[in-house]
Amino acid sequence: MKRTYTCGLDAAIAVMGGKWKGLILFSLGEGPLRFGELRRAVAGISERVLILQLREMENSGLVHREVHQQVPPKVEYSLTEFGRSLNAAMAPLGEWGEDNLQRIEAIP
Amino acid sequence: MKRTYTCGLDAAIAVMGGKWKGLILFSLGEGPLRFGELRRAVAGISERVLILQLREMENSGLVHREVHQQVPPKVEYSLTEFGRSLNAAMAPLGEWGEDNLQRIEAIP
DNA sequence: CAGTATCCAATGCGATACTG
DNA sequence: CAGTATCGCATTGGATACTG
To answer: What is the pLDDT along chain B (108 residues), one digit of tens a residue?
Structure first.
């Protein structure tokens, strides 16, 4: 991050930056997911980008990464308390998008 | 836009894309602003980028652009009804950012 | 399964200068 | 005042192949 924000919205957007973090947050909202499950949940994302986004979100304290030592490997991602609070704050935005899907998709 | 969204949040984020649209929306929330006023309100943005973002938001139906024929030129930007509805949906996110400013700024 | 490693393309963004 | 025109770098994202 390393910047100063002019308002809360500014800061929130910086944390949510990029095309995918919102979706990842949303997908983890229901409960923990393994890497592969998450990749399927966030349709269209590449492995590389998913990892990058997850690492950033871990770094921001939004996501917790838990490694279960076993074969085959199992890694679970979940929201932290902080992540859940952001998730809740995003809910109205999600509803807005839901309500206006038609209109948004019609934008040239 | 020209894509299909997997959920409302996805769609909303597509509309809000980029680093500045949230701030512009927020700045116009209080009422109409002229180009120059807006440029000062959204501190740090370049003229070029501000125009680009405004055009996109006009195109999305979020912002209305009104030209007053006079010398010197006067152009006012305001939120449409659609823009105001999005603004309202973003409010909780703005509050979240406000409440967590310290923490967000501390992210490495 | 859960990642890394490369490489490449797109585009976002910033700075600056100029104009009706 | 309200834009346009250029230029160029930095970041982001995508495709694919490989590994512990």
So the answer is: 767 898 999 999 999 988 999 999 999 999 999 999 999 999 999 999 999 999 999 999 999 999 999 999 999 999 999 999 999 999 999 999 999 999 999 998
The two tokens of residue B63 are: 């912002």
From the CA of B56, how many Å to the C1' of D2?
Answer: 17
Centroid of chain to Cα B31: 12
CATH code, residues A8-106: 1.10.10.10
Phi and psi at A42, nearest 5°, equal: -95, 75
CA distance B31 to A70: 58
Residues 6+ apart with CB under 8 A from B92: A88, A89, A90, A91, A92, A93
- Which nucleotides of chain C are near protein (any atom < 7 Å from a CB)? 1-6, 12-17, 20
- How many Å apart are A48 CA and D18 C1'? 13
pTM (predicted TM-score): 0.93
Between chains, do A108 and B4 touch, taking CB under 8 Å as contact? no
Angle (nearest 5°) at CA B6 between A91 and A102: 85
Q: What is the DSSP secondary structure assignment for residue A29, as one 8-state letter?
A: T
Residues of A from 27 to 66 whose C-beta is within 7 A of strand D: which are they?
Answer: 44-49, 52-53
Tokens of B60: 């999305």
The whole-angstrom separation of Cα B26 and Cα B53 is 14
CB contact under 8 A, B7 and A1: no
